[in-house]
Amino acid sequence: xxxxxxxxxxxxxxxxxxxxxxxxxxxxxxxxxxxxxxxxxxxxxxxxxxxxxxxxxxxxxxxxxxxxxxxxxxxxxxxxxxxxxxxxxxxxxxxxxxxxxxxxxxxxxxxxxxxxxxxxxxxxxxxxxxxxxxxxxxxxxxxxxxxxxxxxxxxxxxxxxxxxxxxxxxxxxxxxxxxxxxxxxxxxxxxxxxxxxxxxxxxxxxxxxxxxxxxxxxxxxxxxxxxxxxxxxxxxxxxxx
Length: 241
Description:
241 residues; alpha+beta; 7 helices; 29% helix; 17% strand
């Protein structure tokens, strides 16, 4: 795994490049896309995963990479035996994320787009607003905050309500004040479920499980590598990193 401090950049390639690298060398027959897992049963020697399309997959180990928001909502029904939900000290940033924000088209503004993130009670309220209403509210907020009545009205808004996406239920994780007082809360989320003789049954990866660069795509990628390496070490598999 790359050392901490290693620089990563996608430049012109985009996020799709990450998936291309991950699946390189994986037989296409081993990739099952567009399947939503509704149950992970690790009560016996063989782990059984069931999908919403009633497909069944038998596994020796499972690595779960769902978002923290999804895990907090579905942990009680997703796993057999039941596992407690992740600590409330870690929260999904259930934010309405503006992809390119509010677009301004006025010469004095050096940037053509302004990007906003919202959290807390504002999320649902903003989610119910029309684009026109939201543009008015944000423009007035900028005028007051910047003490500048000449702030122009945005031309359009581009947004995605991640908290409404049933497979995400938020954007990225954040530490609540209580979590800050805990020792390594992110790594606590990454603790695997172990079976007899220390066998790995269910492992957890995702940006929320990285101790230093959570909230990032890099953190998610590295956490997946961490769990894959943990698994091959346990099974004694030689792996060319």
